[in-house]
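Reply to dn_fold:

You asked what the input looked like. This is it:
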Amino acid sequence: MAPKVATDGSGRPDWRRPALRVGLEIALVALVAAYLAIHLSSPLVVALLVVAAVVGSVALLFRELDRQAYAWVRYASNRAQQNQQKKRREREKRRRQREAAAKQASDGRRQQSKDG
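and this is what came back:
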């Protein structure tokens, strides 16, 4: 299942909303860890709690970074596909124009040979 990624109006991946969400999630982790650390008396448990909070924050950050990278890859892939389709249509149009010009020229030569 592909993760849902917010985009700005142009279809480009937007980084502001995900950055805000990750910032809030990390702040929540830090606040919960601080609240628990205040009420714990054992320094060892507090140290383990701080380590767990840092690891959790880094995990949240990397998860969002992965989503953003996926969104940019998908965006670039779609753009490349659109460009390839556009080039293919232009090539087909030029080919049809060349065929029409060649047919018109051959029809003109046939008409001249009939007249001459």
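The radius of gyration is 31 Å.
Hope that clears it up.
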